Amino acid sequence: MSKMPMVFVGHGSPMNAIEDNQYTRNWREIAKKIPKPESIISISAHWYTKGTRIMNEENPKTIYDMYGFPKELYEILYNSPGNPKLAEHTKSLITTPNIFDNTWGIDHGTWSVLVHMYPERDIPVFQISIDATAPPEVHFKIGKELKSLRHQGVLLFGTGNIVHNLLLIDWGRQDNGFDWAHEFDDFIQENIENKKHENVINYISLGENAKLSVPTPEHFYPILYILGATDGEDKISIFNKGYTMAPCL
Known about the structure:
The chain is an alpha/beta fold and 249 residues long. The chain has helices at 22-33, 71-74, 84-93, 108-117, 136-145, 179-193, 197-201, 208-213, 222-228; strands at 6-10, 39-49, 52-54, 98-100, 125-131, 154-160. Helices cover 32% and strands 14% of the residues. Strands 1-6-2-5 form a four-stranded parallel sheet, with helices on both faces. Strands 3-4 form a two-stranded parallel ribbon.
């Protein structure tokens, strides 16, 4: 089987699930341009746990891990099947301590994007959590350990945001956001494009811009899994680069 590409998505607001905008239209374009996966493994910013946890249910539930949004969002059911056999294999590939855990489900970091990419809900999906106790190097290493799955029809899917600081959103701004957000986003993009992954792993070296852009790391870490699973032959395509209020998508 040919090698599957990988996807990192800045999922942005949950409202993207029900909106037609530049981001959601481009998510649909991604699905058209890549081979249809046999399974999807999502690393979502919204499953942030002590240790690594892996879903292995036959039918994972839909999680509504957001508050104060329109009723229409809570009526979305992303009822794709799971893949327990693949989950078992995935667990065996990860060398750091990990356990099966089905107390979570397919959260909005995943389904708000997949509802546009794969609305038929016919592709098995499960999530791997982000270990809150692990440093950036470990997340990158787990990505390396998952690389072989790309030859088995698996789409590795990271979903978070490069810049994510909700406390500093200025709802009155009408421009494209803060300079520090642009500078950090550009730094990460440049180093990804030049395959200087060590600079992305050591993002905190960017100082104040990094502290403002990534005050907590859960939305940033998913990109490290994707970068860890790359190889020298991979080509990089950018489908979305935009800013909403201050954060970058």
